[in-house]
Amino acid sequence: LKILIPGASGGIGRKLVARLTKEGHEVVGIDRRPWTEAPIEFYEVDVRKRAAEDVFRRTRPNAVVHMATVTSLMVRGEERYQINLGGTRAVFEHARAYGVEHCIFVGRHTFYGAGPDSPLFHTEDEPPLALNRFPELADLVAADLYAATALWRFPELATTVLRICYTLGSTGQGTLAGFLKGKHVPQVLGFDPLFQFMDEDDVVSAIALTLSKRPRGVFNVAGPQPIPLSRVILQAERTPIPLPELLLSGLIGRFGLPKLPPGALTHVKYPVVVDASAFREQMRFVHQHDELETIASFREAFPRPQ
Amino acid sequence: VRFDEEARATIDRLELPFNRIGLDPYGISKFHLRAALTLLIPFYRHYFSVETRGIEHVPLRGRAMLVGNHAGGVAIDAAMVFGACLLEMHPPRLAEGMIEKFLGRLPFLGEWASRVGQFAGVPENAEHMLEDERLLMVYPEGVRGTAKLFRQRHSLVGFGSGFMRLALKTSAPIIPVAVLGAGEALPTIANAYKLGRYFGLPYVPIVAYGLPVPFPAKFEIEFGAPMRFAGTGNEDDDVVFGHVARVKDAIGEMLAEGVRRRRGEPPQLARGA
Fold first, then answer.
1. How many beta-carbon pairs below 8 A join chains A and B?
2. d(Cα B43, Cα B45) in Å, to the nearest integer?
3. Alpha helices, DSSP H only, in A172-290?
4. CB B101, CB B121: distance < 8 Å
5. A212 in contact with B, Cβ within 8 Å
6. What is the ipTM of this complex?
7. What are phi and psi of B29, to 5 degrees?
8. 8 Å CB contact of A226 and B108
Protein backbone atom coordinates (compact mmCIF):
# COMPACT_ATOMS: atom_id res chain seq x y z
CA LEU A 1 0.00 0.00 0.00
CA LYS A 2 0.94 3.63 -0.42
CA ILE A 3 0.23 5.31 2.92
CA LEU A 4 0.27 9.04 3.64
CA ILE A 5 0.72 10.10 7.25
CA PRO A 6 -0.03 13.71 8.19
CA GLY A 7 1.65 14.22 11.55
CA ALA A 8 4.37 11.67 10.83
CA SER A 9 7.18 13.26 12.80
CA GLY A 10 5.60 12.84 16.25
CA GLY A 11 6.69 10.05 18.58
CA ILE A 12 4.04 7.51 17.57
CA GLY A 13 4.22 8.76 13.95
CA ARG A 14 7.89 7.85 13.63
CA LYS A 15 7.32 4.42 15.16
CA LEU A 16 4.40 3.86 12.79
CA VAL A 17 6.53 4.88 9.80
CA ALA A 18 9.20 2.37 10.85
CA ARG A 19 6.63 -0.43 11.26
CA LEU A 20 4.84 0.20 7.96
CA THR A 21 8.09 0.52 6.02
CA LYS A 22 9.24 -2.78 7.50
CA GLU A 23 5.96 -4.39 6.44
CA GLY A 24 6.80 -3.35 2.86
CA HIS A 25 4.44 -0.40 2.47
CA GLU A 26 5.43 2.81 0.73
CA VAL A 27 5.09 5.60 3.29
CA VAL A 28 4.94 9.36 2.73
CA GLY A 29 5.00 11.82 5.61
CA ILE A 30 3.65 15.35 6.10
CA ASP A 31 4.29 17.44 9.19
CA ARG A 32 4.88 21.08 9.97
CA ARG A 33 7.40 19.94 12.57
CA PRO A 34 10.74 19.16 10.90
CA TRP A 35 12.12 15.63 10.62
CA THR A 36 15.75 15.72 9.60
CA GLU A 37 17.05 12.52 8.07
CA ALA A 38 13.54 11.16 7.66
CA PRO A 39 13.82 7.60 6.28
CA ILE A 40 10.83 8.22 3.98
CA GLU A 41 9.57 10.74 1.44
CA PHE A 42 8.79 13.63 3.81
CA TYR A 43 7.29 17.09 3.32
CA GLU A 44 7.66 19.78 5.95
CA VAL A 45 4.34 21.48 5.28
CA ASP A 46 1.19 22.34 7.19
CA VAL A 47 -1.75 20.07 6.22
CA ARG A 48 -3.95 23.15 5.82
CA LYS A 49 -1.66 24.65 3.14
CA ARG A 50 -1.78 24.34 -0.64
CA ALA A 51 1.52 22.45 -0.64
CA ALA A 52 -0.10 19.63 1.34
CA GLU A 53 -2.78 19.19 -1.31
CA ASP A 54 0.00 18.92 -3.89
CA VAL A 55 1.42 16.00 -1.92
CA PHE A 56 -1.96 14.21 -2.12
CA ARG A 57 -2.14 14.93 -5.87
CA ARG A 58 1.37 13.81 -6.67
CA THR A 59 1.61 10.74 -4.45
CA ARG A 60 -1.99 9.44 -4.80
CA PRO A 61 -1.97 7.36 -1.60
CA ASN A 62 -4.28 4.36 -1.03
CA ALA A 63 -4.62 5.11 2.65
CA VAL A 64 -4.20 8.08 5.01
CA VAL A 65 -3.46 8.00 8.74
CA HIS A 66 -4.39 11.43 10.10
CA MET A 67 -2.27 12.09 13.19
CA ALA A 68 -1.79 15.83 12.72
CA THR A 69 -3.87 16.98 15.67
CA VAL A 70 -2.58 19.06 18.57
CA THR A 71 -3.46 17.55 21.93
CA SER A 72 -1.07 19.55 24.06
CA LEU A 73 -2.97 21.96 26.28
CA MET A 74 0.04 24.28 26.18
CA VAL A 75 -1.12 25.29 22.71
CA ARG A 76 -4.18 27.38 23.41
CA GLY A 77 -7.30 28.67 21.82
CA GLU A 78 -7.56 29.81 18.25
CA GLU A 79 -4.47 28.04 16.93
CA ARG A 80 -5.50 24.63 18.28
CA TYR A 81 -8.96 25.08 16.80
CA GLN A 82 -7.52 25.99 13.40
CA ILE A 83 -5.13 23.04 13.30
CA ASN A 84 -7.47 20.43 14.71
CA LEU A 85 -10.61 21.34 12.78
CA GLY A 86 -9.17 23.05 9.69
CA GLY A 87 -6.55 20.33 9.36
CA THR A 88 -9.04 17.48 9.73
CA ARG A 89 -11.34 19.05 7.17
CA ALA A 90 -8.45 19.48 4.70
CA VAL A 91 -7.26 15.90 5.14
CA PHE A 92 -10.71 14.39 4.47
CA GLU A 93 -11.43 16.65 1.51
CA HIS A 94 -8.09 15.90 -0.15
CA ALA A 95 -8.59 12.21 0.62
CA ARG A 96 -11.86 12.23 -1.28
CA ALA A 97 -10.60 14.44 -4.11
CA TYR A 98 -7.54 12.31 -4.82
CA GLY A 99 -9.08 8.86 -4.67
CA VAL A 100 -7.90 7.66 -1.26
CA GLU A 101 -9.63 4.37 -0.32
CA HIS A 102 -9.20 4.37 3.47
CA CYS A 103 -8.75 7.21 5.95
CA ILE A 104 -7.99 6.73 9.67
CA PHE A 105 -8.56 9.56 12.13
CA VAL A 106 -6.36 9.04 15.19
CA GLY A 107 -8.40 10.47 18.07
CA ARG A 108 -8.22 10.32 21.86
CA HIS A 109 -10.22 8.51 24.51
CA THR A 110 -10.50 11.80 26.42
CA PHE A 111 -13.37 12.43 23.96
CA TYR A 112 -15.75 11.04 26.61
CA GLY A 113 -14.52 13.32 29.38
CA ALA A 114 -14.39 12.58 33.10
CA GLY A 115 -17.03 13.00 35.77
CA PRO A 116 -18.19 11.48 39.06
CA ASP A 117 -21.44 10.15 37.59
CA SER A 118 -20.33 8.88 34.21
CA PRO A 119 -20.11 5.15 33.49
CA LEU A 120 -16.73 3.58 34.23
CA PHE A 121 -16.34 1.93 30.81
CA HIS A 122 -17.33 4.20 27.94
CA THR A 123 -18.67 2.62 24.76
CA GLU A 124 -18.53 4.12 21.27
CA ASP A 125 -22.22 5.05 21.21
CA GLU A 126 -21.90 7.51 24.11
CA PRO A 127 -21.97 11.26 23.47
CA PRO A 128 -19.19 13.45 24.93
CA LEU A 129 -21.14 14.32 28.06
CA ALA A 130 -18.43 15.89 30.22
CA LEU A 131 -17.45 18.66 27.82
CA ASN A 132 -18.95 21.34 30.05
CA ARG A 133 -16.40 20.49 32.75
CA PHE A 134 -13.44 20.71 30.38
CA PRO A 135 -14.35 23.09 27.53
CA GLU A 136 -10.73 23.28 26.33
CA LEU A 137 -11.20 19.83 24.79
CA ALA A 138 -13.97 21.08 22.51
CA ASP A 139 -11.77 21.28 19.41
CA LEU A 140 -10.62 17.66 19.72
CA VAL A 141 -14.17 16.46 20.35
CA ALA A 142 -15.40 18.45 17.35
CA ALA A 143 -12.60 17.09 15.15
CA ASP A 144 -13.52 13.53 16.20
CA LEU A 145 -17.22 14.05 15.43
CA TYR A 146 -16.39 15.88 12.20
CA ALA A 147 -14.14 13.04 11.03
CA ALA A 148 -17.00 10.61 11.60
CA THR A 149 -19.26 12.64 9.27
CA ALA A 150 -17.09 11.32 6.44
CA LEU A 151 -18.82 7.97 7.07
CA TRP A 152 -22.02 9.32 5.47
CA ARG A 153 -20.67 12.24 3.44
CA PHE A 154 -18.06 10.22 1.54
CA PRO A 155 -19.41 6.65 1.36
CA GLU A 156 -16.77 5.70 -1.20
CA LEU A 157 -14.04 6.47 1.35
CA ALA A 158 -13.68 3.87 4.12
CA THR A 159 -13.37 5.93 7.30
CA THR A 160 -12.17 4.71 10.68
CA VAL A 161 -12.18 6.89 13.79
CA LEU A 162 -9.94 5.49 16.53
CA ARG A 163 -10.31 6.77 20.10
CA ILE A 164 -7.03 5.66 21.60
CA CYS A 165 -6.26 5.67 25.33
CA TYR A 166 -3.13 7.33 26.71
CA THR A 167 0.14 5.99 25.34
CA LEU A 168 3.29 5.37 27.30
CA GLY A 169 6.68 4.12 26.26
CA SER A 170 10.24 4.85 25.31
CA THR A 171 9.62 8.11 23.39
CA GLY A 172 8.31 9.84 26.51
CA GLN A 173 5.83 11.75 24.37
CA GLY A 174 2.17 12.18 25.09
CA THR A 175 -0.04 13.63 27.81
CA LEU A 176 0.54 10.94 30.43
CA ALA A 177 4.30 10.71 29.87
CA GLY A 178 4.55 14.48 30.17
CA PHE A 179 2.65 14.35 33.45
CA LEU A 180 5.01 11.68 34.83
CA LYS A 181 8.34 13.20 33.76
CA GLY A 182 9.28 14.96 37.02
CA LYS A 183 10.43 13.47 40.31
CA HIS A 184 7.22 14.50 42.07
CA VAL A 185 3.82 14.09 40.48
CA PRO A 186 0.85 16.08 41.84
CA GLN A 187 -2.48 14.45 42.58
CA VAL A 188 -5.77 15.80 43.87
CA LEU A 189 -6.01 14.79 47.55
CA GLY A 190 -8.75 12.22 48.09
CA PHE A 191 -9.07 11.30 44.41
CA ASP A 192 -7.21 8.52 42.66
CA PRO A 193 -8.79 7.85 39.27
CA LEU A 194 -8.09 4.86 37.07
CA PHE A 195 -5.75 5.66 34.18
CA GLN A 196 -5.89 3.64 31.00
CA PHE A 197 -2.82 3.54 28.82
CA MET A 198 -1.08 1.25 26.37
CA ASP A 199 2.43 0.73 25.10
CA GLU A 200 3.47 2.82 22.09
CA ASP A 201 4.34 -0.35 20.18
CA ASP A 202 0.84 -1.72 20.79
CA VAL A 203 -0.68 1.54 19.51
CA VAL A 204 1.42 1.19 16.36
CA SER A 205 0.22 -2.42 15.99
CA ALA A 206 -3.40 -1.32 16.42
CA ILE A 207 -3.08 1.30 13.66
CA ALA A 208 -1.25 -1.12 11.35
CA LEU A 209 -4.00 -3.70 11.94
CA THR A 210 -6.67 -1.10 11.14
CA LEU A 211 -4.85 -0.33 7.87
CA SER A 212 -4.91 -3.99 6.88
CA LYS A 213 -8.56 -4.66 7.88
CA ARG A 214 -10.10 -1.36 6.72
CA PRO A 215 -13.10 -1.31 9.09
CA ARG A 216 -15.67 1.50 8.76
CA GLY A 217 -16.81 3.14 11.96
CA VAL A 218 -15.74 4.41 15.35
CA PHE A 219 -13.64 2.26 17.70
CA ASN A 220 -12.22 2.68 21.17
CA VAL A 221 -8.68 1.35 21.31
CA ALA A 222 -7.10 0.14 24.55
CA GLY A 223 -4.83 -2.63 25.69
CA PRO A 224 -4.26 -3.76 29.26
CA GLN A 225 -6.50 -3.00 32.26
CA PRO A 226 -6.49 0.52 33.72
CA ILE A 227 -4.84 1.14 37.09
CA PRO A 228 -5.14 3.95 39.66
CA LEU A 229 -2.99 7.02 39.02
CA SER A 230 -1.13 6.64 42.33
CA ARG A 231 0.00 3.15 41.29
CA VAL A 232 1.11 4.44 37.88
CA ILE A 233 3.22 7.09 39.63
CA LEU A 234 4.74 4.59 42.10
CA GLN A 235 5.47 2.02 39.38
CA ALA A 236 7.25 4.77 37.42
CA GLU A 237 9.39 5.30 40.56
CA ARG A 238 8.06 8.80 41.08
CA THR A 239 6.59 10.28 44.25
CA PRO A 240 2.89 11.14 44.29
CA ILE A 241 2.21 14.48 45.99
CA PRO A 242 -1.48 14.64 46.93
CA LEU A 243 -2.57 18.28 47.30
CA PRO A 244 -5.98 19.69 48.18
CA GLU A 245 -7.81 20.67 45.02
CA LEU A 246 -7.91 24.40 45.83
CA LEU A 247 -4.19 24.49 46.52
CA LEU A 248 -3.38 22.48 43.42
CA SER A 249 -5.40 24.72 41.10
CA GLY A 250 -3.56 27.70 42.58
CA LEU A 251 -0.15 26.10 42.11
CA ILE A 252 -0.66 25.05 38.50
CA GLY A 253 1.81 26.84 36.25
CA ARG A 254 4.18 27.56 39.16
CA PHE A 255 7.07 25.67 40.79
CA GLY A 256 7.69 23.68 37.63
CA LEU A 257 4.13 22.38 37.43
CA PRO A 258 2.72 22.55 33.91
CA LYS A 259 0.32 25.35 33.07
CA LEU A 260 -2.99 23.60 32.54
CA PRO A 261 -6.53 24.89 32.11
CA PRO A 262 -8.72 24.31 35.19
CA GLY A 263 -10.76 21.67 33.38
CA ALA A 264 -7.70 19.44 33.16
CA LEU A 265 -8.02 18.79 36.89
CA THR A 266 -11.18 16.74 36.24
CA HIS A 267 -8.95 14.26 34.40
CA VAL A 268 -6.84 13.72 37.53
CA LYS A 269 -9.94 13.53 39.73
CA TYR A 270 -12.14 11.17 37.76
CA PRO A 271 -11.34 8.30 35.40
CA VAL A 272 -11.57 8.24 31.61
CA VAL A 273 -11.73 4.56 30.74
CA VAL A 274 -13.03 3.03 27.52
CA ASP A 275 -14.56 -0.32 26.67
CA ALA A 276 -12.43 -1.45 23.74
CA SER A 277 -14.06 -4.85 23.28
CA ALA A 278 -15.51 -4.01 19.82
CA PHE A 279 -12.04 -3.26 18.43
CA ARG A 280 -10.52 -6.32 20.11
CA GLU A 281 -13.18 -8.64 18.72
CA GLN A 282 -13.56 -7.23 15.21
CA MET A 283 -9.84 -6.63 14.57
CA ARG A 284 -8.68 -9.61 16.61
CA PHE A 285 -6.35 -7.20 18.36
CA VAL A 286 -4.22 -8.57 21.18
CA HIS A 287 -1.89 -6.26 23.09
CA GLN A 288 1.67 -7.48 23.68
CA HIS A 289 2.63 -5.41 26.72
CA ASP A 290 0.70 -5.47 29.98
CA GLU A 291 0.20 -2.39 32.15
CA LEU A 292 3.29 -2.96 34.31
CA GLU A 293 5.63 -3.72 31.38
CA THR A 294 4.36 -0.54 29.70
CA ILE A 295 5.26 1.60 32.71
CA ALA A 296 8.60 -0.21 32.94
CA SER A 297 9.53 0.72 29.38
CA PHE A 298 8.80 4.38 30.14
CA ARG A 299 10.75 4.15 33.41
CA GLU A 300 13.78 2.63 31.69
CA ALA A 301 13.86 5.41 29.09
CA PHE A 302 13.10 8.11 31.66
CA PRO A 303 14.40 7.08 35.08
CA ARG A 304 13.46 9.14 38.12
CA PRO A 305 15.29 12.50 37.80
CA GLN A 306 18.00 12.98 40.41
CA VAL B 1 -4.24 -8.26 64.23
CA ARG B 2 -6.39 -11.41 64.38
CA PHE B 3 -8.92 -9.65 62.17
CA ASP B 4 -6.15 -8.62 59.86
CA GLU B 5 -5.10 -12.24 59.29
CA GLU B 6 -8.67 -13.35 58.64
CA ALA B 7 -9.19 -10.44 56.26
CA ARG B 8 -6.03 -11.29 54.36
CA ALA B 9 -6.93 -14.96 54.06
CA THR B 10 -10.46 -14.10 52.92
CA ILE B 11 -9.39 -11.61 50.27
CA ASP B 12 -6.75 -14.03 48.99
CA ARG B 13 -9.50 -16.58 48.32
CA LEU B 14 -11.57 -14.15 46.21
CA GLU B 15 -11.98 -15.38 42.64
CA LEU B 16 -11.34 -12.06 40.91
CA PRO B 17 -8.80 -11.47 38.10
CA PHE B 18 -6.26 -9.51 40.12
CA ASN B 19 -3.04 -8.50 38.36
CA ARG B 20 0.48 -8.82 39.80
CA ILE B 21 0.01 -5.80 42.05
CA GLY B 22 -3.40 -6.85 43.32
CA LEU B 23 -5.71 -4.79 41.09
CA ASP B 24 -8.60 -6.10 39.03
CA PRO B 25 -9.79 -4.49 35.75
CA TYR B 26 -12.21 -2.21 37.66
CA GLY B 27 -9.44 -0.94 39.93
CA ILE B 28 -10.70 -3.08 42.83
CA SER B 29 -7.66 -3.41 45.07
CA LYS B 30 -6.62 -6.25 47.37
CA PHE B 31 -4.90 -3.75 49.63
CA HIS B 32 -8.05 -1.67 50.06
CA LEU B 33 -10.27 -4.76 50.43
CA ARG B 34 -8.05 -6.13 53.20
CA ALA B 35 -8.07 -2.83 55.06
CA ALA B 36 -11.83 -2.44 54.71
CA LEU B 37 -12.55 -6.01 55.80
CA THR B 38 -10.18 -5.74 58.78
CA LEU B 39 -12.26 -2.79 59.93
CA LEU B 40 -15.55 -4.51 59.11
CA ILE B 41 -14.97 -7.90 60.85
CA PRO B 42 -15.24 -6.65 64.46
CA PHE B 43 -18.43 -4.76 63.60
CA TYR B 44 -19.88 -7.73 61.72
CA ARG B 45 -18.97 -10.41 64.29
CA HIS B 46 -19.16 -8.57 67.60
CA TYR B 47 -20.68 -5.10 67.52
CA PHE B 48 -23.70 -5.91 65.35
CA SER B 49 -23.36 -9.73 65.81
CA VAL B 50 -24.79 -10.39 62.36
CA GLU B 51 -26.85 -13.54 61.94
CA THR B 52 -27.24 -14.80 58.38
CA ARG B 53 -29.87 -17.09 56.90
CA GLY B 54 -30.02 -18.58 53.41
CA ILE B 55 -26.49 -17.65 52.29
CA GLU B 56 -26.61 -20.82 50.14
CA HIS B 57 -29.03 -18.97 47.84
CA VAL B 58 -26.21 -16.69 46.65
CA PRO B 59 -24.58 -18.42 43.66
CA LEU B 60 -20.88 -19.20 44.11
CA ARG B 61 -20.07 -18.07 40.58
CA GLY B 62 -21.70 -16.24 37.71
CA ARG B 63 -23.89 -13.17 37.40
CA ALA B 64 -26.48 -12.45 40.06
CA MET B 65 -28.18 -9.47 41.65
CA LEU B 66 -28.70 -9.04 45.37
CA VAL B 67 -31.74 -6.80 45.89
CA GLY B 68 -32.25 -5.51 49.40
CA ASN B 69 -34.00 -3.06 51.70
CA HIS B 70 -32.44 0.01 53.26
CA ALA B 71 -33.00 1.63 56.67
CA GLY B 72 -31.10 3.60 59.24
CA GLY B 73 -29.71 6.83 57.84
CA VAL B 74 -26.55 5.52 56.22
CA ALA B 75 -26.09 2.25 54.38
CA ILE B 76 -24.78 0.10 57.26
CA ASP B 77 -27.10 -2.62 55.96
CA ALA B 78 -25.24 -2.70 52.63
CA ALA B 79 -21.91 -2.94 54.46
CA MET B 80 -23.18 -5.96 56.41
CA VAL B 81 -24.49 -7.73 53.27
CA PHE B 82 -21.08 -7.01 51.71
CA GLY B 83 -19.50 -8.56 54.84
CA ALA B 84 -21.82 -11.59 54.76
CA CYS B 85 -20.82 -12.45 51.17
CA LEU B 86 -17.14 -12.24 52.11
CA LEU B 87 -17.31 -13.95 55.50
CA GLU B 88 -20.07 -16.53 55.14
CA MET B 89 -19.48 -17.75 51.58
CA HIS B 90 -16.89 -20.35 50.59
CA PRO B 91 -15.17 -19.23 48.44
CA PRO B 92 -15.99 -15.65 49.41
CA ARG B 93 -17.66 -13.34 46.86
CA LEU B 94 -17.39 -9.61 46.46
CA ALA B 95 -20.80 -7.93 46.44
CA GLU B 96 -20.34 -4.95 44.13
CA GLY B 97 -22.78 -2.23 45.06
CA MET B 98 -24.35 0.51 43.01
CA ILE B 99 -23.84 3.61 45.14
CA GLU B 100 -25.36 7.07 45.06
CA LYS B 101 -23.70 9.36 42.54
CA PHE B 102 -23.00 12.10 45.10
CA LEU B 103 -20.53 9.78 46.89
CA GLY B 104 -18.17 9.90 43.91
CA ARG B 105 -17.85 13.65 44.34
CA LEU B 106 -16.65 13.39 47.95
CA PRO B 107 -12.88 13.13 48.47
CA PHE B 108 -11.56 9.81 49.89
CA LEU B 109 -15.04 8.29 50.15
CA GLY B 110 -15.48 7.97 46.39
CA GLU B 111 -11.93 6.70 45.98
CA TRP B 112 -12.29 4.03 48.71
CA ALA B 113 -15.71 3.00 47.49
CA SER B 114 -14.45 2.24 44.01
CA ARG B 115 -11.32 0.43 45.29
CA VAL B 116 -13.56 -1.99 47.19
CA GLY B 117 -15.92 -2.51 44.27
CA GLN B 118 -18.71 0.00 44.94
CA PHE B 119 -19.42 2.10 41.84
CA ALA B 120 -21.73 4.91 40.79
CA GLY B 121 -25.22 3.53 40.22
CA VAL B 122 -25.57 4.12 36.51
CA PRO B 123 -27.12 1.38 34.37
CA GLU B 124 -24.03 1.09 32.17
CA ASN B 125 -21.87 0.12 35.15
CA ALA B 126 -24.39 -2.44 36.39
CA GLU B 127 -24.74 -4.02 32.97
CA HIS B 128 -20.98 -4.19 32.46
CA MET B 129 -20.52 -5.98 35.78
CA LEU B 130 -23.32 -8.47 35.19
CA GLU B 131 -21.99 -9.26 31.71
CA ASP B 132 -18.66 -9.82 33.47
CA GLU B 133 -20.34 -12.43 35.74
CA ARG B 134 -20.03 -10.33 38.90
CA LEU B 135 -22.29 -10.27 41.95
CA LEU B 136 -24.18 -6.99 41.96
CA MET B 137 -25.78 -5.45 45.07
CA VAL B 138 -28.72 -3.13 44.47
CA TYR B 139 -31.00 -1.14 46.77
CA PRO B 140 -33.93 -0.05 44.60
CA GLU B 141 -35.22 2.28 47.33
CA GLY B 142 -32.08 4.40 47.01
CA VAL B 143 -31.73 7.45 49.22
CA ARG B 144 -35.44 7.31 50.08
CA GLY B 145 -34.64 3.96 51.70
CA THR B 146 -31.85 5.14 53.98
CA ALA B 147 -33.97 8.21 54.78
CA LYS B 148 -36.55 6.02 56.58
CA LEU B 149 -37.09 7.15 60.15
CA PHE B 150 -36.93 4.77 63.13
CA ARG B 151 -40.66 4.08 63.15
CA GLN B 152 -40.62 3.31 59.41
CA ARG B 153 -37.66 0.95 59.68
CA HIS B 154 -39.50 -2.23 58.76
CA SER B 155 -41.41 -0.71 55.86
CA LEU B 156 -40.48 -0.54 52.21
CA VAL B 157 -40.75 2.60 50.10
CA GLY B 158 -41.19 2.71 46.33
CA PHE B 159 -38.87 0.49 44.28
CA GLY B 160 -37.44 1.78 41.03
CA SER B 161 -37.71 -0.43 37.97
CA GLY B 162 -34.18 0.00 36.59
CA PHE B 163 -32.82 -3.05 38.39
CA MET B 164 -35.53 -5.27 36.94
CA ARG B 165 -34.96 -4.09 33.38
CA LEU B 166 -31.26 -4.88 33.83
CA ALA B 167 -32.01 -8.30 35.27
CA LEU B 168 -34.26 -9.04 32.29
CA LYS B 169 -31.75 -7.73 29.76
CA THR B 170 -28.82 -9.67 31.21
CA SER B 171 -30.84 -12.74 32.36
CA ALA B 172 -29.43 -12.34 35.85
CA PRO B 173 -31.14 -14.11 38.76
CA ILE B 174 -32.35 -11.86 41.58
CA ILE B 175 -31.66 -12.86 45.17
CA PRO B 176 -34.00 -10.93 47.49
CA VAL B 177 -32.29 -9.86 50.70
CA ALA B 178 -33.96 -8.64 53.88
CA VAL B 179 -31.89 -6.88 56.52
CA LEU B 180 -33.18 -6.25 60.03
CA GLY B 181 -31.27 -4.11 62.50
CA ALA B 182 -30.07 -1.11 60.50
CA GLY B 183 -33.06 0.93 61.68
CA GLU B 184 -32.19 0.16 65.31
CA ALA B 185 -28.46 0.72 64.80
CA LEU B 186 -29.00 4.29 63.68
CA PRO B 187 -32.45 5.31 64.94
CA THR B 188 -33.14 8.52 63.05
CA ILE B 189 -35.89 10.82 64.22
CA ALA B 190 -35.53 13.34 61.43
CA ASN B 191 -33.46 14.16 58.36
CA ALA B 192 -31.91 17.59 57.90
CA TYR B 193 -32.22 18.14 54.17
CA LYS B 194 -31.08 21.76 54.10
CA LEU B 195 -27.99 21.04 56.20
CA GLY B 196 -27.21 18.14 53.88
CA ARG B 197 -27.32 20.32 50.81
CA TYR B 198 -24.68 22.50 52.46
CA PHE B 199 -22.25 19.54 52.51
CA GLY B 200 -23.26 18.13 49.12
CA LEU B 201 -25.23 15.29 50.77
CA PRO B 202 -28.88 14.40 50.19
CA TYR B 203 -29.58 14.90 53.94
CA VAL B 204 -27.98 14.58 57.37
CA PRO B 205 -29.70 11.99 59.61
CA ILE B 206 -30.56 13.24 63.12
CA VAL B 207 -30.07 10.34 65.53
CA ALA B 208 -32.48 9.83 68.47
CA TYR B 209 -29.76 9.94 71.15
CA GLY B 210 -27.91 12.84 69.57
CA LEU B 211 -24.64 11.16 68.70
CA PRO B 212 -24.07 10.10 65.09
CA VAL B 213 -22.64 6.77 66.35
CA PRO B 214 -24.40 3.49 65.56
CA PHE B 215 -25.96 1.63 68.48
CA PRO B 216 -24.85 -2.06 68.79
CA ALA B 217 -28.16 -3.43 67.50
CA LYS B 218 -28.36 -7.05 66.41
CA PHE B 219 -28.46 -7.52 62.64
CA GLU B 220 -30.26 -10.32 60.86
CA ILE B 221 -29.78 -10.87 57.15
CA GLU B 222 -31.95 -13.26 55.20
CA PHE B 223 -31.18 -14.24 51.61
CA GLY B 224 -34.21 -15.56 49.75
CA ALA B 225 -34.38 -18.14 46.97
CA PRO B 226 -33.21 -16.81 43.58
CA MET B 227 -35.98 -15.36 41.40
CA ARG B 228 -35.72 -15.57 37.63
CA PHE B 229 -37.69 -13.46 35.19
CA ALA B 230 -37.78 -14.02 31.44
CA GLY B 231 -37.76 -11.07 29.06
CA THR B 232 -35.70 -8.53 27.21
CA GLY B 233 -35.81 -5.48 29.47
CA ASN B 234 -37.84 -3.54 26.89
CA GLU B 235 -41.26 -4.57 28.25
CA ASP B 236 -43.96 -2.05 29.15
CA ASP B 237 -43.78 -0.43 32.55
CA ASP B 238 -46.82 -2.32 33.89
CA VAL B 239 -45.17 -5.67 33.07
CA VAL B 240 -41.86 -4.63 34.64
CA PHE B 241 -43.50 -3.14 37.73
CA GLY B 242 -45.42 -6.41 38.12
CA HIS B 243 -42.08 -8.24 38.39
CA VAL B 244 -40.74 -5.52 40.71
CA ALA B 245 -43.75 -6.02 43.00
CA ARG B 246 -42.97 -9.74 43.29
CA VAL B 247 -39.40 -8.98 44.41
CA LYS B 248 -40.64 -6.30 46.80
CA ASP B 249 -43.20 -8.72 48.24
CA ALA B 250 -40.54 -11.39 48.73
CA ILE B 251 -38.39 -8.93 50.70
CA GLY B 252 -41.42 -7.63 52.60
CA GLU B 253 -42.41 -11.17 53.64
CA MET B 254 -38.92 -11.95 54.91
CA LEU B 255 -38.92 -8.66 56.84
CA ALA B 256 -42.32 -9.37 58.41
CA GLU B 257 -41.21 -12.88 59.30
CA GLY B 258 -38.06 -11.45 60.88
CA VAL B 259 -40.03 -8.93 62.93
CA ARG B 260 -42.29 -11.73 64.24
CA ARG B 261 -39.23 -13.81 65.08
CA ARG B 262 -37.69 -10.89 66.97
CA ARG B 263 -40.89 -10.45 68.95
CA GLY B 264 -40.84 -14.14 69.80
CA GLU B 265 -44.03 -14.86 67.84
CA PRO B 266 -44.42 -18.19 66.02
CA PRO B 267 -43.67 -18.12 62.27
CA GLN B 268 -46.62 -17.85 59.90
CA LEU B 269 -46.91 -20.70 57.47
CA ALA B 270 -48.28 -18.54 54.69
CA ARG B 271 -45.20 -18.56 52.54
CA GLY B 272 -45.40 -21.32 49.95
CA ALA B 273 -47.40 -23.53 52.32
1. 67
2. 6
3. 175-180, 200-213, 229-235, 245-251, 266-269, 277-283
4. yes
5. no
6. 0.90
7. -120, 130
8. no
